[in-house]
Amino acid sequence: MRKLVGLLLLLPLAAGGAEQISADLLSDPFFERYQPEVDVSGNVIVGVMTMAAAGALTDDLLGVRLSQMAQATDLCLRATSADGIYTSRNHYRLPADQTGSIHLPYSSSMREVVAGYGDLDVAIAASVGDCNSSGTDYYVVGSLDAAQSADTVIFLNSFGATDVFVEVDGSDELPEACEPITEGRRTTYDFYCRVVTNAADSVSLNIIRERFGREQPGVRLTLVGLAP
């Protein structure tokens, strides 16, 4: 198996003592659901986040970074537990003419439920556009606590693949193997990938899935706002 490598992009999300700027939460009411009986469906890409983001859900310290002076931009934040029981989906608007760390207020009324999940048990994705959009651009969601890990992972549903790889678009490097998640109930995702890139602003990735050596349809995504 090829080695896994780390994506070290948000280092850190927030500087100590900096004034905190928040996105506007447009969803009213805040949408989250706890549903033990799960009807499985969804996308290959389930989470694009740092390893510290799961804990930031409970502490209301989720954030993304804007790398250039931006116009007001919509963002859809989704959180999905691996067992599929807990889900949330909420619409935000990022502030215009800002760079750096932006707080995403997470007004959960189920903090005890969320706190019960470990680092590999909840995936978080912030896609560009509202929650009815189907784009492939994602902000990397992290923690505003600068002391927390900034290693970034992509959680995905392999849909029956036996091997999954990730490659940086245009790179001469071979695709890197993603890691299967085998413990616990894995209803909504079952692999995670770590990626290395030196991109300053955005990077495009290709997800390659194989089932017993036969390649399945590939998936492309772009990570935006990687550095201030």
List the helices and strands and how they pair.
Elements: E1 7-8, E2 21-22, E3 24-25, E4 32-34, E5 45-50, H1 53-59, E6 62-66, E7 73-81, E8 86-94, E9 100-103, H2 111-115, E10 122-128, E11 137-139, E12 142-143, E13 151-156, E14 163-168, E15 176-177, E16 179-180, E17 191-194, E18 202-211, E19 214-215, E20 219-224
Parallel strand pairs: 2-9, 11-20
Antiparallel strand pairs: 1-13, 3-8, 4-8, 5-13, 6-9, 6-12, 7-8, 7-10, 10-11, 13-17, 14-15, 14-18, 16-17, 18-19, 18-20
What does this structure look like?
With 228 residues, the protein is mainly beta. It has one domain (7-224). It is built from two helices and 20 strands. Strands 3, 4, 7, 8, 10, 11, 14, 15, 18, 19 and 20 form an eleven-stranded mixed β-sheet that branches. The longest helix has 7 residues, at 53-59. The N and C termini lie far apart (35 Å).
Strand content: 35-45%
Class from secondary-structure proportions: mainly beta
Domain unit count? 1
For the secondary structure, the number of strands is: 20
Low-confidence stretches: 1-17
Largest sheet report: 11 strands, mixed
Helical element count? 2
Order of helices and strands: EEEEEHEEEEHEEEEEEEEEEE
Features:
228 residues; mainly beta; five-stranded antiparallel β-sheet; 2 helices; 5% helix; disordered N terminus
In brief:
With 228 residues, the chain is mainly β. It is 5% helix and 40% strand.
